[in-house]
Amino acid sequence: MYRYDQFDAQIVNDRVDQFRSQVDRRLSGDILEDEFKPLRLQNGVYLQLHAYMLRVAIPYGQLDSAKMRKLGVIARDFDRGYGHMTTRQNIQFNWVALKDIPDVLEQLAEVELHAIQTSGNCIRNTTSDHFAGATKDEIMDPRPWCEIIRQWSTFHPEFAFLPRKFKIAVTAAEHDRAAIRVHDIGLHMRKRGDQVGFEVHVGGGQGRTPVIATMVNEFVPEAELLDYLEAIMRVYNRFGRRDNKYKARIKILVTETGAEEFTRLVQEEYAAQHDAEKIDLPQAEIDRIHAYFAPPAFADKPATSDAFERAKAADSKFATWAGVNLHPHKVDGYTSVTISLKPIGGLAGDATDSQMMVMAHLAETYGFDDIRVTHAQNVVLPHIALDDLYDVYRELDAAGMSTANESLITDMIVCPGLDYCNLANARSIPVGQEIQKVFADGDYERDIGKLHINISGCINACGHHHVGHIGILGVDRKGEEFYQISLGGRADEKARVGDIMGKALKFDEVPGAVKTIVDTYRGLRTNSDEKFIDTLERVGHEPFKEAIYAAD
Amino acid sequence: MPLIKDGAEIEDTWSFTEGDAEVPATGCVTVSLTRLIEDADALLARNTQVGVRLEPADDPHDLEPFLDRLGLIEVSFPKYTDGRGYSQAQLLRRRLGYGGELRAVGHVLTDQILYMNRSGFDAYSTTRATLPSVLKALKEYSAFYQPAADGNGSVFARRHTKA
């Protein structure tokens, strides 16, 4: 993984000192909350319902054992013993005292972590495929370019006060696990002969107005990427709407300007750049950053493992878990392990300090010291030898992290909702837990197969309900919580916004409605291999709608 | 209003004339972009210097015919959260080659001044930041990842430059 050099370290340490002085000025009353807000926001500090929340950046979701241990220490010493993995592959601490935040940032800097630009109307943490560098289906590793984008976008003086927040995602795999088409900029790495480049999608997003991104350029050669991004950013900064925060994302600019005209504006700005304006990114620097992401020293192993096969035969729970939570690795004899942070009845994405220590230990002992946070709020150990898998599993099991539900119906994306967030209209976590109870029987859940439920507690869509196969949106009707159900959303290469089924349901009706949808699917699928989303696309939404509202 | 330029607080010898109001007979004045374009001949024929004040929606390219005759360009920040002025500044400095005084006016706060400086501003008209706080803010960082209008090389390039 990337390591800081003197410049990276200097910049992050300068930030800690700067923020310490800003917090001092706030605590002494020298500056008011109003003026402090933009400063804390660009450092990932939010004022939540109960306390300040600190969001720590995990660039493209990658950690090592030292970083994970440090996050555990912070959860233990400054929070209430846990941290919350977010859909931007970051981690949030919900109970940190403002006076402690400078010390927390200083501790984070020791392990090359920071909270820069994890909030505010600036370029946020660049996200990527959580299996990057490990998965069979990628044409190259996207992380080096994510790191280059991270550096370029850090404290960019022109783009610190954009109309609204700005999110970039990068993938290099045909199957898009980074949801690039619902990002402000989505980059899909492509090859033309030996040349590496980026297919550029702009103006995707969720929130109040979900939009699938427009492709503005089929192939931007890698050497031109940052200059091209600057052109897009400048067009957005100059022309994006600032009169209404709900119309301020780049998706609205693209929609209102028209995709063709927007593309022309970007091309015009790009073509006008003088040589002196180009970003001085030498090839030696591109090579230097790529070198940090060289594959680890994998052992020469057969494709199958006797130890793994024996353990599966002896321990059926392990066999079940291995059938669900593994992803094919590009190297024979290895696999990528998803550690589900979605235990039945638990809090989606939460890990305790001691669980963080266990994950750090496993990565260090068995996993080439590599850990990823996924946008579905789980954790991945990307490089585990099949021979070691049973040892890894037993430690996870002992720490309460062996839930076998990766991408199944109980592996939901859930926003914090009304329990924590001051924007929410309805609770999210309890509705997720009630649905989980319906499907808690593992055989039932595995029979259903891959199915994404995403839950948001308000229209801002932090729980990605628009792109859930089943989306659930909490709304407030005269003080009572109701939930709108949508079907058919997806965030992958066939990205699509789900369709609202009909009138919103009461809290108590939601689990039953989800069960009705699922059982309707089981009745309609051609065989058990046809996934929910494929059946839905084949038969349309009508049978599901009829089933939910049959009683009306 | 206090004016900070080149590391010192200096006297402001300029005045801004709103809209179509009468321009004072003497002294350096700035006017709106519309006024400059409409009255360019009369304004630029004055014995004293003339400048312009850009509002966030103004296009800096409209200044191209006048750039070498302007004594000052003010860029207005009605709210610190409106970041269009940073792009205007970068365009003026790097695209259009403007070399004169570039002054941030309006809601100019200490904690934005480094970004302004990097974007090409060299003067700050502000009641919200004191000279010592501005001087400190300008020195809070010693390295920058990306090139900008301040002429500092990017970290990308500095890593590969022999000292």
Amino- and carboxy-terminal Cα gap of chain A: 56 Å
Radius of gyration of chain A: 23 Å
Number of helices of chain B: 6
Helical fraction of chain A equals: 25-40%
Low-confidence stretches of chain B: none
Largest sheet of chain A: 6 strands, mixed
Query: Counting H and I runs of at least 4 residues, what is the number of helices of chain A?
Result: 18
Q: Give the beta-strand count of chain A.
A: 21
What fraction of residues of chain B sit in β-strands? 15-25%
What structural class do you assign from the helix and strand content of chain A? alpha+beta
Largest sheet of chain B: 8 strands, mixed
Mean pLDDT of chain A: 95
CATH topology of chain B: TIM Barrel
Specify the CATH architecture of the largest domain in chain A: 2-Layer Sandwich
Report the CATH architecture of chain B. Answer: Alpha-Beta Barrel
Any idea what the CATH superfamily of the largest domain in chain A is called?
Sulfite Reductase Hemoprotein, domain 1
Distance between the termini of chain B: 42 Å
CATH level 1 name of the largest domain in chain A: Alpha Beta
CATH class of chain B: Alpha Beta
Secondary-structure element pattern of chain B, one letter each: EEEEHHEEHEHEHH
Write the layout of secondary structure elements.
The complex is a heterodimer of chains A (552) and B (163).
Chain A: H1 6-27, H2 33-41, E1 45-47, E2 52-56, E3 62-63, H3 65-78, E4 82-85, E5 91-96, H4 101-110, E6 127-128, H5 143-153, E7 168-171, E8 185-192, E9 195-202, E10 214-221, H6 225-239, H7 250-257, H8 259-272, H9 283-291, H10 306-314, H11 316-324, E11 326-328, E12 334-339, E13 350-352, H12 353-366, E14 371-373, E15 379-385, H13 389-398, E16 413-414, H14 429-438, H15 442-448, E17 453-456, E18 470-477, E19 480-487, E20 499-500, E21 505-506, H16 510-524, H17 532-539, H18 542-548
Parallel strand pairs in A: 6-7, 7-8, 16-17, 17-18
Antiparallel strand pairs in A: 1-2, 2-5, 3-14, 4-5, 4-13, 8-9, 9-10, 11-12, 12-15, 14-15, 18-19, 19-20, 19-21
Chain B: E1 3-5, E2 8-10, E3 14-16, E4 28-32, H1 33-38, H2 40-44, E5 50-54, E6 72-77, H3 84-95, E7 101-106, H4 113-119, E8 123-125, H5 131-138, H6 155-158
Parallel strand pairs in B: 3-4, 4-5, 5-6, 6-7, 7-8
Antiparallel strand pairs in B: 1-2, 1-8
